[in-house]
């Protein structure tokens, strides 16, 4: 199985494409992030705590979009990459020039070690091997996350209400 490795403060982080059977690990990581966000008054990932969230994660794994990051064999983070995004980006999400980052999450107990930043860079680098543009979306009501993405080189192109 192909995997990428990067060094982090805590040791080597291994990233591999998720396979059937990894859904529970990914859901656990994303639910941990969703609960933390909700404790901060940010309902950004509330859907992850529902059956709809379960179905989305299972779809991402089945379609080969989801990746799992592990430290010493323990799953600690996740990210999904896709090659179109009509849901979040509308018609522009089907223009063929971009790759899309979704579902970036790291278990809270590993927060503060720049693992999210490193996963994001890995995702950006992976997309840039196939596309010229990297896109993502985030909740406008999460200023900390918007600032993080800005610090990583992303530029806000506006706001859009999701259906």
Could you name the key traits of this structure?
6-stranded mixed sheet; 34% helix; alpha+beta; 5 helices; 163 residues
* Oligomerization state: single chain
Q: What about the largest sheet? A: 6 strands, mixed
DSSP strand (E) fraction? Answer: 25-35%
Quantity of strands, as a count: 6
Estimated structural class: alpha+beta
Share of residues in helices: 25-40%
Provide the low-confidence segments as ranges.
Answer: none
What string, H for helix and E for strand, traces the elements in order? EEHHEEHEHEH
What is the CA-CA span between the terminal residues?
Answer: 37 Å
Shape: globular
Description:
This protein is 34% helix and 25% strand. It contains five helices and six strands. Helix 4 (115-128) links the parallel strand 5 and strand 6 (133-136).
Question: Any chance you could write out the topology, listing elements then pairs?
Answer:
Elements: E1 3-8, E2 11-17, H1 23-39, H2 51-62, E3 66-71, E4 74-82, H3 86-89, E5 98-106, H4 115-128, E6 133-136, H5 143-151
Compact description:
This protein has 163 residues and is α+β, with helices and mostly antiparallel strands. It has helices spanning 23-39, 51-62, 86-89, 115-128, 143-151; strands at residues 3-8, 11-17, 66-71, 74-82, 98-106, 133-136.
């Amino acid at each position: 199985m192909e995997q990428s490795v990067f060094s982090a403060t805590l040791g080597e982080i291994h990233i591999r494409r998720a396979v059937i059977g990894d859904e529970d690990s990914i859901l656990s990581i994303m639910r941990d992030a969703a609960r933390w966000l909700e404790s901060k008054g940010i309902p950004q990932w509330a859907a992850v705590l529902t059956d709809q969230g379960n179905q989305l994660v299972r779809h991402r794994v089945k379609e080969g979009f989801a990746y799992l990051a592990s430290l010493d064999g323990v799953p600690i983070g996740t990210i999904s990459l896709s090659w179109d995004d009509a849901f979040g980006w509308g018609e522009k999400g089907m223009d063929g020039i971009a790759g899309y980052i979704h579902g970036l999450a790291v278990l809270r107990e590993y927060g503060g070690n720049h693992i999210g930043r490193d996963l994001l860079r890995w995702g950006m680098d992976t997309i840039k091997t196939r596309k010229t543009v990297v896109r993502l979306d985030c909740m406008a009501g999460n200023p900390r996350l918007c600032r993080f993405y800005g610090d990583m080189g992303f530029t806000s192109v506006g706001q859009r209400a999701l259906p």
